[in-house]
Design a protein that fits this description.
Chain A has 531 residues and is an alpha+beta fold. Chain A folds into three domains: 174 residues, Periplasmic binding protein-like II (D-Maltodextrin-Binding Protein, domain 2, 3-Layer(aba) Sandwich); 122 residues, Alpha-Beta Complex (Dipeptide-binding Protein, domain 1), CATH 3.90.76; 213 residues, Dipeptide-binding Protein, domain 3, CATH 3.10.105.10. Chain A is 32% helix and 23% strand. Chain A is built from 16 helices and 20 strands. In chain A, a hairpin with a 2-residue loop joins strand 6 and strand 7. In chain A, helix 9 runs antiparallel to helix 11, helix 14 packs antiparallel against helix 15 and helix 15 runs antiparallel to helix 16. Chain B is mainly alpha-helical and 317 residues long. Chain B is 81% helix and 0% strand. The model of chain B has no long low-confidence stretch (mean pLDDT 87). The chains are: A alpha+beta (531), B mainly alpha (317). Chains A and B meet through helix 1, helix 7 and helix 13 of A and helix 2, helix 3, helix 5, helix 7 and helix 10 of B.
Chain lengths: 531, 317
Amino acid sequence: MKRNISFVLVIMIALSLALTGCTNGTPSGGSEPASAAASGAPGETASAKDSLLWGVNAEPSSLDPSTSKDTVTHMMMYQIYDALIKEDPADYTKLVPGLAESWEFSDDNTQVTFHLRKDVKFHNGDTMTADDVYFSLQRSLESSFSSGISEAIDHFEKVDDMTVKCVLKYPYGPILDVMTNMTYGIVSKRAVEEAEAASVDFARNPCGTGAYKIVEWRSGDALVLERFDDYYDGPAHIKNLSFKLVPDAASGAIALEDGTLDVYYIVAPSDYDHLKNTKNIAYVECPGVGLHHITFNVTDGIFTDKRIRQAVAYALNRDDIVIGGAEGYANVADCLAPTSVFGYIDDFKWYEQDLDKAKALLAEAGYPNGFDVVFSMQGSDTYMKPAQVAQDQLRKIGINVTFDKMERAAYLEDVGNKRKFAASLRMINATVRDADSVLTRRFHSSMLGGGNNYSGYSNPEVDSLIEEARKASDRDKRVELYRQIYEILKEDVPLIPIYTDTVNMFYNAKLKNFYAHPVYRYAVGKMYFEQ
Amino acid sequence: MVKYIIKRLFLIIPVILGVSFIIFSIMNLTPGDPAIMILGEGAKPEQYAALREQMGLNDPFFIRYLRYVLDAVKGDFGKSYRTNIPVLQEIATRLPYTLKLAVSSELIAIFFGLPIGVLSAVKQYTKTDNIALGTSLLLTSMPSFWFAMMLILLFSLKLRLLPSLGIDTWKHYILPAIATSSSTLASLIRMTRSTMLEVIRQDYIRTARAKGAPERKVVFGHALRNALLPVVTIIGVNFGISLGGAIVIEQVFAIPGLGQLMVNSIRAKDTPMVVAAVLFAAIIASIINLIVDIFYTYIDPRLKSQYTTIKAKKVTS
C-alpha cells in the first residue's frame, strides 16, 4: 500500500515540478517588456498602460530593408526604420517629409534631389549623414528584393553631406511613392559594416532611425521593441511594443476579444461582423491594393482561344464572388488594376454576366457542351473561396472546373516559374500605388520568362502604351492611356479582374491615433492608450 | 542491463540515418524551390539561379544528402534557408517549449487516466463506469484543435480564468496541456480499464480477497501493478504522439515550439530545419521508448529476472 501511495506522490510531485518549472520566466531569456504585456491576465488592459502587444500571423522574414519585401515584415520594420518620404499617418494619400526635409525634380523629371533632415539619430547613437542614406538606398537597389518597385531607378548619388540624388532611367511619376517603401528604409552604414565584420546577422540586429529600437527577437515567439528616446519626431507615447506571433487567425481574434492582444494582423473576414459589434474593439477600414483575378495561360492549353476566355468573362457574376469569396468586404474591380490606385478608371466597365453570349462564344470555339478544366490554386481561403463561387458559375455554361490545390512553394514553382497551368485565381498587390505597378508586371513583354507575366500575354501595342503612360507627366494623359490599355485587355482577356479587398484592422478601443492604411503602415509612435 | 541500454542507444543511429534519409528525400521530391520561396515573386531568373548556386541546390540529391550527413556528424546541421540562423540553435530554443507541453500533458493524462480507468474497472457496468467510458469516447472523438478552441472560448473568453495564448507563466500551459492530453487520457482510461478487468478475474486476486486483504490493497497492490505493463506502453507511444500533436496545439496557442517550427519550415521548403526538427523528435521518441522498456523491468519482475538469468548464464559459461 505504501508503495502505491508513493507512486501517486511521485506523480503529483512530478506534475507540480513540471508546472513550477514553467514559471521560471521566459526560458529564452526574454523578460521585460514583451513578457510584461504578454503575461497580462485577460482584462488587465482595462487600466492605462504603456505596452502594446500586437499579434501577427507570421514572423518577420528579415529586419534588413534590403532583404525583405513581405507585407507583415514591412509593417514591423515601419516602426524601426524611416524612409526619406512618408505618408501622413492620418491621411495616407498625402506624402510628407520623412528623413528628407524636402525634394525637387530636375526639369526633365529624370532626377530627384533629396535634402536630408539634420540631427537625425540612429539607434546606435550615430548621426545620420548622406553616406548612410546613399549606402542604404544603393544597397537596396542592388538587392533582388527590390525588384518590382525599382525598375525605373538607375542609381543613387551622394551630392554633399546632406543631399542625395536619385537618378531615373526615364521620367517616372510614382517615384515618390516608391521612396516611401520600407525597402528604401535608411540603415546605419556603420552598424551594417560592424555586423558584417563580426559575422553578426544585421537582419536580426537592425539599426535604423525609427520610433522604436529592437530589444530582442525571440524566434517563433515575439519581436520585442522599445521606444527610441532620441527619435527625430519626438519619442513615442507607448514605451514597449511587441509583435507576438499568433499563426492561427481564430486564436488571434479570440485573444483580441479577451484583451490579451491589443491589435491582431490579420483577422479572417468571417470574424469581421462579430468583432465590429464587440464593445471593447475598434476598427479601421480602407480599400487595399490587391487585385484578385483569374489568370489564363494564353500560350498553352485550352485558354489560348480568346473566345473561350471571353466566354468565361461573360459567365461570371463578380458581385456574387465578392459576397461568397470575401464575405462582402471587397469592391468589384472593372479595370485590370486595384480599385484604390492611381490609374483605376471608375467609369470603365468590364463584361456584365450574360450566359447566352458565353454559351454562343463557347459553341463558336467548338465547345457547345463545355469542357473540363483544372484551375491550379493555392489552398488558402483567400483564393479558394472566390474560386469556388466562380466554379459554380462556370458550371452553368458547361465548364466543369476542378482544383489542383498546392502549397505556396509548389504553386510558385509550377504556376509562377514553369507556367504549368491552364488557369488560376490569384492576387497581385500594387507594390506602388499606381496602375503601372500591376500593368507592367502582368502584361509587359519584359516580364515574360521568369518575371510576373504568368499568362504569357505579349502585345507590342500594350507594351508601348504601358511605357508611354509610365513616362507621361500629365495625369489626365496617363489616365487616357490606361483607358486604351484596359480596352485592349478587355478584348483579349488574358486576365479577368474580380475584386479589391478592403483592409480591416481591429484593435483595442482604448488605443488612439490608429488610422487605416492600405499596406499596413501604422505609425505606432503616434499612438497612445486612453486613460 | 547497462549493456542492454548501450546496445539500444547504438540502435538509435540507424533510426536517425533512416529518418534523415526519408525526410531529406520527401523534401526533395515535393514540388517547390527554396530559392523562389526566399526571393518571392518578381525576382529575375538570374537572381534565382545565383541563389540556388549559393545554396548548393544545383548538386545532385545524393551529394547533398551525403554532405548533410557528414556535416551533421560534426554537429553542423546547417543554417535555416528561411532565417539564416544555425539550425541547432533554433531547435535548442524551441525544443524546451514542446517538451514542457508534452510532459505536462502526459502527466495530466496519467494523473487522471489511471485512477479513472481503475475506478471504471472496479465499478464495471455501473453509472461511474458508463460516465468514464462516455468521457473517454468523447475525448478521443474530439479533434484536438477543436477541443482547444472550446477550452479557450470557455476559460479565456467567457470565464476569463486563463490566458488564451502565450508562454510566459505556468498558467499559459494549462489549456494547451489539457488539449494535448485529451487523446492520451482517453486511451489510458480505456486501456487501464480493460487490463484491470482482465487481471481482476485472475486466481491470485481471488486468493488475495479470500485471505482477507482489504479491497484497496487488492486493487492497487495486486491488480494495478500487473495491469500496468500495457498501460506504460501506451504512455510511451503517446509521448511520441504528443510531440506530433503539438504541431496543431502550438499553432492554436501560439507556442513557439518544435511543432510550429516544423509547420513553418515545411511551408517554406526549409529543408535543413525540417530534417533536423524531425530528427530530434525521432531521437526523443526513441529515448522515451528505451525508458519505457527499462521501466518494464521495474514493474514486472519476470522481465527483470530474464536479464539477470541471461547475465547469470553468461557468468557460469
